[in-house]
Design a protein that fits this description.
alpha/beta; Aspartate Aminotransferase, domain 2; four-stranded antiparallel sheet; 14% strand
């Protein structure tokens, strides 16, 4: 390892993982590392180089993808046999190029959708493929039985470790149920707690549309609760909860969808006190949770009635459709029964992949890189639109724009779409009878090139600067 360390230190002009990869290549080229020789474990080399294990793991992954190294499940990483380069234009070469484009290349386009956040591929596709390959070679995976508590245990433990920076109050793996994404998690909770022929669900007056969709499926009435610049107004919450005999409040206090505001701790405490007085279940959906959140969840503030939902959809990939639901201890068995009666539990290949992914240090490294990449797009939007009333946060993949005089939300959305930019009107976030402000939500689309995104922001800025003639508010 001493030679790798000296080669690494001589290549420290760029990203550290590239320096590690280059050092290993040089060690192979000069004969210091021989074909079939085993490389040090990730953590050992990281300690020697005084860098994170995720950085070394990323270098190993890059070299494995190039065919310089080979990874063998249960044995380690080795110097691979030299491969004959395919001729340019050969089927093997074309397949490699297609895989690269599919997994990495961003689209350069004039049509940019800002409807829902789109993550860039910064290594998560490759990690998922590695986890699937690892599962395929693991003889201990049971692919003939129904899933159950035992098959989910490892994924639950990995998820709780991933959530260690979130104050959930006293929690164990028995308090968590895995769901098919956050929306399914919401449905499981509502199916567990709602009762009677005409249940009522409270939501913020501007709220995530999935709350209302879930209520419709369960034939529940939705009642919006007024908000101010700190979130739900406690006095209004208590008044409406008593008036309608509401059973549940659905809320996003850490990152409110769509405005991005954060409810401060004192307001959360007051809301929790109201919920306790009126026996109101608090469902906190934090799919967009902040990495530096310093407020306790409602599950911690209200352990008898607080529920917590999150997923990896907004931080890693939405394709796996895995959510994590943490129940109050009193209701954890009832929630588990709802899940079993509904879908028997998550498929075992999926729980295997989630356990493997959340246990890998390189997964968290990828999540950090995704967050940094998304910030570039957020800052590009702020640079273009910062002269207007816009709410944003470095780690929230959407922005909330209050439209200036001269624009109605519906007209602005139509004008933006005519310019090739799709945004969401505030009307999407209010009940049918609610009041919608003249505002739009713009999600970050990091699936297009930064140039395409910046040009889209420029077109929105031109619309804001030049309201359509005859439109007044």
């Amino acid at each position: 390892m001493g030679t790798i360390k000296s080669l690494y230190e001589s290549n420290l002009q760029g990203p550290k993982y590239q320096a590690v990869a280059k050092a290993i290549r040089q060690a192979i080229d000069t004969g210091v590392l021989a074909v079939s020789e085993k490389l040090p474990p990730v953590r050992d080399l990281a300690w020697q180089l005084q860098i994170t294990p995720g950085t070394v793991a990323r270098a190993y992954t890059v070299l494995t993808d190039e065919g310089v190294l080979s990874a063998e499940v249960g044995r380690g990483t080795f110097v691979a046999e030299p491969q004959t380069e395919p001729e340019v234009g050969s089927p093997r070469d074309a397949d490699r190029d297609r895989r690269w484009q599919k997994h990495v290349a961003k689209v350069d386009t004039d049509i940019v959708s800002l409807f829902s956040p789109t993550l860039p591929d910064l290594g998560q596709v490759n990690l998922i493929n590695q986890s699937l390959a690892k599962m395929a070679n693991d003889p201990n995976v049971d692919l003939l039985s129904y899933p159950g508590s035992a098959s989910e245990y490892g994924a639950q433990r990995a998820a709780l470790r991933w959530l260690t920076d979130t104050d959930l109050g006293p929690v164990s793996d028995k308090d968590m149920v895995l769901s098919n994404g956050s929306q399914n998690g919401l449905m499981l909770i509502l199916q567990t707690v709602l009762k009677g022929p005409h249940p009522v669900i409270l939501v913020e007056e501007l709220s995530y549309p999935g709350f209302r969709r879930a209520a419709r499926l369960l034939r529940a009435e939705v009642v919006p609760v007024p908000m101010d610049d700190q979130g739900i107004v406690p006095e209004e919450l208590e008044r409406l909860a008593r008036k309608h005999d509401a059973q549940v409040l659905c809320t996003c206090p850490d990152v409110h969808n769509p405005t991005g505001l954060t409810t401060p701790l004192e307001r959360r405490r007051n809301i929790a006190k109201v919920a306790k007085r009126v026996n109101l279940h608090m469902i906190e959906d934090e799919s967009y949770r902040l990495p530096d959140a310093n407020c306790p969840t409602y599950r911690a503030l209200l352990p008898e009635l607080g529920w917590f939902i999150t997923s990896i959809s907004k931080s890693f990939t939405p394709s796996l459709r895995v959510g994590f639901v943490v129940a109050p201890k009193k209701y954890r068995q009832a929630l588990r029964q709802t899940a079993v009666h509904g879908h028997f539990g998550l498929a075992q290949p999926l729980t295997y992949v989630i356990e493997d992914l959340l246990g890998r240090p390189e997964t968290h490294d990828v999540m950090d890189r995704i967050r940094r990449e998304m910030r570039q797009y957020i800052h590009a939007a702020v640079n273009a639109l910062g002269g207007y009333d816009i709410a944003w946060h470095d780690d929230v993949p959407y922005l909330w724009l209050q439209l200036p005089d001269g624009w109605r939300a519906s007209a602005f959305v139509q004008a933006a779409e005519a310019k090739g930019v799709q945004v969401r009107t505030a009307e999407d976030f209010v009940p049918r009878t609610g009041f919608a402000p003249h505002a739009v939500r713009m999600a970050v689309n990091a699936g297009v090139t930064l140039r395409s995104y910046e040009e889209a922001m420029g077109r929105l800025r031109a619309l804001l600067d030049n309201p359509q003639a005859g439109i007044t508010v």
